[in-house]
Structures are given as structure tokens and as C-alpha cells.
Amino acid sequence: xxxxxxxxxxxxxxxxxSQLFVITYEAIRQFETGEYFVLxxxxxxxxxxxxxxxxxxxILGNTYADQQxxxxxxARRIINESDGRLESTLCVIIxxxxxxxxxxKRWGRENxxxxxxxYTSTGILPRGQELERLLSYEFFTHDPFDVTGPVASDAQxxxxxxxxxxxxxxxxxxxxxxxxGIRKIGKTSILHRVLAxxxxxxxxxxxxxxxxxxxxxxxxxxxxxxxxxxSLRGLRESGQSYAEVNATPFAGTTAEATNRFxxxxxxxxxxxxxxxxxxxxxxxxxxxxxxWRHGFVEFWxxxxxxxxxxxxxxxxxxxxxxxxxxxxxxxxSIDGVENAAxxxxxxxxxxxLPRGAANAMIKNIGAMAGLRFEEDxxxxxxxxxxxxxFWIRKxxxxxxxxxxxxxxxxxxxxxxxSTMLEDFGRDEGAALAKVALQHxxxxxxxxxxxxxxxxxxxxxxxxxxxxxxxxYGIAAANGAISGTMMRMALMMIAEEQPVIDESPAQxxxxxxxxxxEWAEELAAISYRRNMMERSLRSIVINFLRVSxxxxxxxxxxKATLLAAVNEKRRAELEPFNLDLIAExxxxxxxxxxxxxxxxxFERVFGDKSLFNRNxxxxxxxxxxxxxxxxxxxxxxxxxxxxxxxxxxARV
Length: 651
Known about the structure:
By secondary structure, the protein is an alpha/beta fold. It contains 27 helices and 14 strands. The chain has a five-stranded mixed sheet with strand order 1-2-3-4-5, sandwiched between helices. Strands 6-10-9-7-8 form a five-stranded parallel sheet, with helices on both faces. The chain has a two-stranded antiparallel ribbon with strand order 11-12. α4 links the parallel β4 and β5. α6 crosses α7, α9 packs parallel to α10 and α20 runs parallel beside α27. The two termini are about 60 Å apart.
């Protein structure tokens, strides 16, 4: 019965898609414990253009009421085995899970696959243009840039694959490597990728030590050495190749813990790899774990001794250290004690993506959302984000949310992208970059001054400091600030001033001397005008929407709005959705739209000539001109704002 229903849905799908695709292959196949129908479809020229595809596309379906991640794993396997016949980043899945669309899209993102989910409760699918609109909507609304957590899949891992493979090879050979870099640059992603490469390609015993765990960084040096020894012992006894450290307090001495650690290393005939992530938590930078102020040197001195002892007995032990600050691995002493980590842990960095890899990442991921970019636009985004992969994803996710779904696929020019980049930088991007820099300066305070000096060209910087800033992605190879987001963040940090405690009388007196009565008047007018403009935008958009719903000619609110602006502005605003267009309209454009569609707004404003006269007064801003202000100017603006306020209050 189940197979009959599956065959029936397969036939219905083939029939529904026949106007859009030529079905070139069909079968019923099993994967794990599930059964699916599998179709290959070659899209019509129109469908190929809409979805941005050239090859055939995989169409997968099942009759289960609860979708599982195995559906996406099966889709990925079929695509990988097709030898290039199928599109590698796109798949259609027909299903009967009322909550399945969101799940399938999320699992698709995790596997670098744009899933177009089509839900049918009855097994019947729409036809023709209705199905085409459904495919387009489901494809373009998902945000492929929105990836949370570390990235490890081939389809999402850009620009670092060779680097990860080389790191895995060196660790297998008994090397000590490090991976320092600014927050969110991809350290954990590459660490996870390296561990996966080792697990799949090499015979080794790997222990992962996540230092940000409370139970880990709350240990002292002896306790962490003991925990590593106990975890390695358990790993060897179980015969497994990978484990995470089990934090276990230890009442003995550091010497005892070291002896146990050294003894367990001698029991392994295969390479032992110790991978430390978020290493900053077990350095003197962690003010909430004061035992690491002196314990840092103690820990690394004994790890170094055990490493050398293992080498003498021809045992391979490798270390991979990942974190933000390289500071504690580059100083000669800590509190007068020789630093055992110096020259033992190399000072190596995970720098921003190469420009070609950054551009390829934007291009490939954007294609999954119907966003195509001119080469200059790709350069503008990568440069704006300093080639930082996480910043690029957040920026492009913002762009994705602002582009009208109905306009896709669309090719974005550098002019269109530039305005959106400015908005993102001001609203979110600068703050995002500031958080990363503040975290770096907190764990590596010596870099704050040199980094801020870049705002004044930084020519006096010592070569070693300039090199470190470049490795962290703060400076470009030529010594300039690496990108707009980085510059904005540095400016925000530079503007922060220490708070000076003053008496209320002092503060009040100084404030009075700085702000004149004229300035207060102008500030009040400016505030009221901004509030007025927001209200006017809201009224215009809502009235046009209501009009579009009742219109017989089928014109959308967006089309009606764009028809009221000049041709040049129309071309600039066309890619955006209605709400974003409203935010970008100037005061005079709002006034022009109201005049063009006066019949909609007459009941609000009443007299058209009075509306235009007062709108003109409000637009003629007294605070924007270098002219002598008179009391009459202020009074006139007050009256104009009051007149408009009273009319808008009726809505």
C-alpha cells in the first residue's frame, strides 16, 4: 500500500511538472530505512533562467508525515553520484509533512544545498504558472547566507579546504601547529574540518579540549593534565579514534599528573593528537580563572616535557592550538617566570579569505537565493567586509532580506549594492566588527593602540606590529585599514571616552554654555520633522497597499509607488521590496506620490494647495542652510509642522 501511494505521488509529480520540466529519469529507491521516488528533470529555458540552472535537477519525494534529515542526505548522495549530470546546489523535495518546509530548508543549508520544498497534504500539486510561482517563492525566500555555528561541509567551506588538508597531514606526522585569529574568522570551522579530515583519512587518536567549557577552565594545571591523561586512557581502552576531554579535578601534584600523562602517551602505537580550542580561557587573559596566571607556564612546561619524552621513545604526539590571542605564546616571560610556551607553540594565524575565495563564496551562495552579482559588486562586498567570511555572510544575509522576491533572479550592480552596504554598516555591521575588535583588545591589549593609529595612517608602526595587524585582518598588505566595516569599528572604539565623574552643577553649567536657545529650537524642529517623515511614509505605504487590494487593474502597491518617481530613481529602487523602498524615499518624493494619488489622501489632508505649501516649508530646513535665522523662520516651521501633525492625527 505504501509503495502504491509513493508511485501514485511520483506520477502526480511528473504530470504537474511536465509544463516546466522534461523528466529524463524516474525510479523508486530506498535509502537507510526510507523509500523515495526519484526524478531527474531538465528545466525549460524559462525555468533555467528563473532558478539559474544549466544541468538537470533532482526531484525527490516521499509520503512520510514527519520529514527526517536523511532525505537531504539521500539527495546529496544522489547528486554526488551523478558525475556532474545534476545541479550540485539545488534540489526539489515533495513531501506531506505540515512542518517540513522549514526543516528541509535548514538541513539543506547545513549541507550546502538549496532545497525547494513543496508540501501537499492531498498528494495533488498545482500546475503551470501557479507551480512556477510556488517553486520561485520557496527557492528565493530561504537565506543560504544564514549559517550558525562552525561550517564543515564541502559546499559551505570556502577558501580553506587546502589549508585544512595540509594541517591534517602535518598533525598526522607529529607536528605542533596553531591557529590564531580574530573572533568569528572561522577558527572553529577549520578546526572541525581538520578533525574530520583526520578521522576519515588517517589512523590517529584525537582528543578535543574545548577550553571555553566551565569545567575545563576551572581546573588548574595539574587537573587539566590529569583530565587529558584519563581521557586518553579511556580512548585507548575503547579502541575509538576520537573523544572530548572529560574534566576531572585532581588532588595530586603537577609532577604526578605529568608522570601519568607521559606514561599514557607511551602506550599508543598510533599518533596522538591534542586539539585545544578557545585557548584564551586557559591563559592569564581569563580574569575569571586566576589560577591560569601562574598555571599557564606550569601547564605548558609539563606538556613540553611529555612531548619531548614521547619523541625519545619514537611516539608521535601532535598539538593544535586555536584561539584569538597569540600574546601569551610570544612573550619571553610571565611574572618573571620563563615562558615555556614560547617557541614551543608557533605563532600562526588564520587570516581573512583570499579575495578570489571571498568573491567565489558570495557568488556561489548567492546563486542559491537568485542573487547574481557583477564583478565590481563582488569586489565591493568583499572589500567592505575585509574578506572576513562571517562578516560577508551577515552582510549578504542583510542584502538578501532587502531584495524583492518577485524580482529574482536579479543581477546586482555595484551602485545598488553600495547603498545597501552603507545602510548595513551603519545599522549593524560596525557594531558587529566592534565586538570582534573589543574581544581581541581585551585578550591582547597591546594591539589596541597600534590598531587605532591606522586611523591616522599608522606610518610610525614597527614592522612586527604592522605584520601582526595584517595577520589579524585589521590592516591590509599595504598597511591601510582592511575594509569599511573595520574602519567604522575602529572609529567607534576611538570615540569612546572614559567617564569623568563631575558634580551635577558642573555638568549643567557646561551643557548650558554649549547649547544655545537657537540650537534647542532647531533640535526640536529636526526631531519633529523626522517623526513627521516616518508617519508620512507609513501612511503612503498603507494607503497604496489598501488601494492595490481593491484595484481592478491588478497593479501592485510597489508598481503604483514607482510610477510616481522619475525614471532614474525608479531604476535605483526597482530591486528592493516595498518597505525598503519606503525607507529610501525622500521627503519631496513622498509629497509627489501623495499629489499623484491625491484622491487617496484627500480625506486626510483636505486642501491640496495648503498641503503642498506646508510640505514645502518643512522641506526648506532652517538648520541646513548657512543663513541668518529670524524668529519668523522658527515660527513658520512650527506652524507648518502643527498643520501636518493635526491632519496625520486623523488617520
